[in-house]
Amino acid sequence: MHPPQLERLLDHYPALAGLHTRLAELPCHRVDGGTPLFREHDACQGFPLLLEGEVRVSRASPNGRELELYRVHPGEMCLVSSASLFTGQALSARGLTTGPTLLVLLPPALFREALAGETFRDFVLGLFAARMADLTALIESVAFQRLDSRLAGTLLGHGPQVRTTHQALADELGTVREIVSRLLHRFEREGLVALSRECITIRDGAGLRALAAGPVGDGLATAV
User: Fold this and answer.
1) CB 38 within 8 A of CB 44
2) CA 37 to CA 55: how far, in whole Å?
3) Whether the Cβ atoms of residue 147 and residue 221 lie closer than 8 Å to each other
4) For residue 183, how many C-alpha atoms fall within 13 Å in the half-sphere facing its CB?
5) In Å, what is the CA distance from 27 to each residue of 13, 38, 159?
6) How buried is 69 (Cβ within 10 angstroms: 0-12 exposed, 13-18 middle, 19+ buried)?
7) Dihedral of CA 102/99/192/144: which sign?
8) At residue 26, does pLDDT exceed 70?
9) Residues 162, 200: contact at Cβ < 8 Å?
10) How confident is the model at residue 220, as a pLDDT?
11) Which pLDDT score is estimated for 174?
12) pTM
């Protein structure tokens, strides 16, 4: 690893400062968006340390539906990778880059060596707890919040114009494209959004916010 890249890595992951000599021997990997970094049921090849970009971690069901669990940014930790390295078991989800990404892969042996140090161990356990809190919130959302409310909240989280596909929104929400499409067309009829090819324009932000904050239900919504 070149010195500037090593410096950037330690800026994002200062808890690894004690391993700087070993880290300097590791290569940096630059990959395009849409690159699978790991897959469900595979053995974990290492602990990803991001310098640039973003990794989307999701879980797929046998029928092809997908649920986004979280996203990893520089300085953050992949819960699935760390859990696999802790237990020695196969990965329980898959990771895909969302755009050009620069990362270093910390080999399993070096990850375990780093865990022997209190600083890195506290860093991992702290981020582990934060990720668990995120996943708990996700479970509550999926289990108790109506899908139309979740979709409204997702649209608001992307700004006044959401450049995405119905399939991508379905993947993010853990549902199927047809249901998302029906909900979006309902939103359009109600004047909340305007739909065009791979673009959703927010027309009534207040209305979407009211829908997003609506009462919890049984996890379903009428998509007609």
Assistant:
1) yes
2) 8
3) yes
4) 26
5) 16, 18, 36
6) buried
7) negative
8) yes
9) yes
10) 43
11) 77
12) 0.65
pLDDT at 132: 79
d(CA 36, CA 95): 6
Alpha carbons within 13 A on the beta-carbon side of 59? 11
Please report, as a single letter, which amino acid is at residue 175.
T
| 113-168 tens-digit pLDDT | 998 889 988 988 888 888 777 777 777 666 656 889 989 998 997 788 999 999 88
DSSP string for residues in 122-162 = HHHHHHHHHHHHHHHHHHHHHHHS-HHHHHHHHHHTT-SEE
What are the backbone angles phi and psi of residue 8, rounded to the nearest 5°? -65, -40
Distances in whole angstroms, Cα of residue 178 to Cα of each of 141, 167, 183, 211: 20, 8, 9, 20
Cα–Cα separations (whole angstroms), residue 51 to 5, 24, 28, 74: 8, 14, 9, 5
Cβ burial, residue 9 (10 Å; 0-12/13-18/19+): buried
- What pLDDT is attached to residue 176? 80
Q: How long a stretch of residues is the chain?
A: 224
Distance between start and end Cα atoms, the chain: 55
User: Of 136, 200, 192, which Cα lies nearest the Cα of 166?
Assistant: 200
The candidate with the shortest Cα–Cα distance to 82, out of 139, 126, 24, 18, is: 126
